[in-house]
Amino acid sequence: MTDHARVTVTCPAGKITGVTDGEINRFHSIPYSRIPGPFEDAERLTDRRLVDATVYRPDTIALSVVTPSDARELSDLPVVVYIHGGRFEHGTHGDRRADGAANARDAIITVHIGYRTKLQGFARFHDDEPDHFRGIDDCQLGLEWVQRNIESFGGDPTNVTLLGQSAGATVALWLMRRDHYRGAFRRAVAMSPCFPRESFERRKGSLRMVLGRPVTRAELTRLAEEKPEVLRKAYVRFRGIHGLDMALGPTGFDGAELSDMPLLLTSTRDEHYEMPAGRKVDARGWGRSMVRLLARRMGVRGSVADYLRAAEAIDPARPMGRLIGDAANRRWVSQAGDEVPGPVWMVEFTADHGPALHCAEISPMFGVTDAGSHPARDLLVDFAHGITPDWPDYDERTGRWTREITLDTASVRLAGDPLRMVREAFTKGPV
Q1: EC annotation (predicted)?
Q2: Domain boundaries 5-196+255-261+359-389, corresponding CATH code
């Protein structure tokens, strides 16, 4: 990379040098915290630094910034902060499906925040504060970095949209909680959020069994530093034990605990059709039987027979695939829509030719396609600019109206309560 392709921004964090192609500036892998130990809480960076942000470093806990090349301090451009998914197990601050180039062309600044995953980010210890997770706290510090520094990149710190997908959507909702919210964003987008069905405390015994030693901060730190392969293999066994669910992540979601702010909730109709276990079961014609066998274990509280009929009415060939997606994601979308105190708009992504799968909406929404304009893209651009969606908000009193957007044909229509089958299956009475 030649010198003329470099660009430097001076901000409270120091001098950040990135790269530019004359249209778009990219600042890769900017450190935003100090992590004293793998299982310790991160700390805010306080010293000013010279940061080489010309190269993407995927193994670091960092953030990236993408801006229009003509963005300057006091340009006051809207900011989208993206938190990646990955089952709380993988992913970094360089998710190419959510590249910020199209946002930059639409005069929006994009920040990707990376955070600790797996046990380093989401194991809990006896002295942790309630509802505190290191991975989520990492994102909190990243948002605080944005508040202190984004104005120097041309962004408006009072006009930040927090957007997360899958596990990242869960993080976004958690950061909206009144006990976590610190004013670092004005509105949020939660795309297919997911919460484990059991807390880490209830699963600690299985982790202790595969580790063969106590689950303490000191012991896990020792393993991470001296025997990382032992810790990696133990985690693989641990997640296998909880294969019908996510092994890690925050639990105890209550939408009523969230702050009152505009929220856009989305899901894909066929979330996890391609999950290998479910695909295999359905392909062999065992879907109906497995749904009957596993529905209660996977969180269905209402009538299993009613749920199965509704699932087969949508797609008789994939009942198990539908149960996996409904249990992992769509039930939480439905619950959040009914419980959050602020205005909420609901979107369901579908497809006319094949299933609408988990993650399929990311690239169209960020404009990372060759198809040109797409209603998913228009939706993000408008929402980031503070434009209220042009369909009714999601309200049980008026019909729970939902915007349906087809990913492959880019058609749009208004649908009435498409999550009813999920709501009735997963929220009725005790198991």
Answers
A1: 3.1.1.-
A2: 3.40.50.1820
